[in-house]
Amino acid sequence: MTRITLTGDQYVLFLLFLRLGIMASIAGVLVTSNYFKRLIFIQTRTRREDWWFALIFGAIITAGTAVRVMVGYDGVDITMPGVFLIGLLCGTAPGVMAGLLVSVPAVLGGEWLTPFYLAACAAAGGAIGMRPERSEEIWGFTPFFYRGLSRSLKVFRKERRFDASAMVFVAVLALDVSRTIVAGYAGKRILFAFTPDHYWMNILVWFSTLACVGIPLKIWNNTRVEMLLEEQRAVAAQAKFDALRRQINPHFFFNTLNTATSCIWSEPDKTRWILVKLAGILRKLLHGTEDFVPLSSELEFIDDYLSLEQARFGPERIMVEKEIDPRALDVPVPSMLLQPLVENAVRHGISGRVDGGTIRIEAESDGEKILIVVRDDGEGFSGEAGEGIGLRNVRERLAVAYGLAQSMTIESVPGEGTEIRIELPVERGRQVE
After folding, report:
1. pLDDT digits (tens, 9 = 90+) for 10-68
2. Which of 24, 99, 223, 433 could cross-link with 332 by S-S, CB 3.0 to 4.6 Å?
């Protein structure tokens, strides 16, 4: 076996790379936890969560300090950047608490200046991170100061202040330089610091400390941005869902008014009944804000709607049949799901036939999926000629609410009728509700 001997500077360089790898690994492992992902949202953390963040991260740093003191592996020490990060993200008090916890192994090893130094690191981080306007700027920190220099100058010119990224750079550099100076004069016995053979190597030491602060911020910020984008996608999907629902309601409203208009002179009593019934339906629509309702509620709504259509065309021309699995009644479905389907069957299927026809509604569930079928024996259509605004809106709402987990198929034969089949996951409906 070949033995390789490193010089003092080479050994320090190896330790610096090791320290960067350890910090990146810790940051990467922590962010795999859903609980820790929530903790890194600096805007939404409570005070209690700040202390939990400090305790979790501080315990990991303490373990590294203990290994360094007891075994002598200097590369596992991430004390200074770790405590500074806690102060930066959680505030001075949690940072100081973490600093005192981390300093316990060092003090037991004779490094009595460590708690005072780490308290100063936490206080510096807390002073920078305490201002709300700096919360977003913190995540943009990079050890390559020239990359953020133009942004810092722009902030200074416009607002006459230093941005958080520049302040973090200066504070970390000043704290690490001061540690190097103190350890150089008093020795590592009272405060740990890397001591390379040549003074110029200290530049790499200081840069590695800056990188140990920047690496977790970059890793956590990537996850933070992904979570923010996911929230924005959810909000956008909800907005689209609501917009489609609002399109359906006026569509139904105007068609029903046309029904009342058609018999206002010949049958005023019937018109009055239609308007009263319509008022009740609209009251339900206007006061109902739920995106998902049980299928039983949708069927009740369809009964009211069909009673209006039967009042217009006559009960003998619009026959209604239903076959509903009792297990499907409590399954949540998008509100106003069935009305466009039934309206399509009435307007494009049955109303054009002299002798009318039958609308059949079926629903069954196996506990995992629900199948809804709306069938008529009307005129039918060829191609996509019968898919108007109402059906397109239903298709889009299902895509927004369920993604690829849903399916909607339309089969129509001219002269024989149309069948619309919708298959939805039961569990997804419960989650969205």
Report:
1. 887 888 888 889 888 988 888 888 777 777 765 566 788 888 889 988 999 999 899 88
2. 433
Q: How much of the chain exceeds pLDDT 70, in percent?
A: 81
């008090």: which residue's tokens?
Answer: 93
List b or e across 318-331, with b for residues whose CB sees 16 or more CB atoms inside 10 angstroms: bebeeebeeebeeb
Every domain of the chain with CATH number 3.30.565.10 lies at 263-432
Query: Is the per-residue pLDDT at 429 higher than 50?
Result: no
Q: Is the pLDDT of residue 370 over 90?
A: yes
d(C-alpha 165, C-alpha 133), whole Å = 12
Separation CA 95–CA 84 (nearest Å): 7
Average pLDDT over the chain, rounded to an integer: 80
| Residue 421, both tokens | 């089949």
Handedness of CA 424, 425, 431, 433 (dihedral sign): positive
Packing angle of the helix pair 164-186, 145-159 (nearest 10 deg): 120
Q: Is the dihedral of CA 187, 188, 190, 191 positive or negative?
A: positive
Beta-bridge mates of residue 373: 362, 421
What's residue 149's pLDDT?
A: 66
Q: For residue 77, what are the CA distances in angstroms to 66, 68, 311?
A: 9, 6, 82
Residues 6+ positions from 122 with CB-CB distance below 8 Å: 83, 84, 86, 87, 92, 95, 96, 98, 99
Closest CA to 42 of 156, 142, 159, 126: 126
Burial of 22 (0-12, 13-18, 19+ CB in 10 A): middle
Q: Which listed CATH number (1.10.579.10, 3.30.565.10, 3.30.450.40, 3.30.450.20) goes with 263-432?
A: 3.30.565.10
- Count other C-beta atoms under 10 Å from residue 67's C-beta: 16
Which of 322, 325, 361 minimizes the C-alpha distance to 344? 361
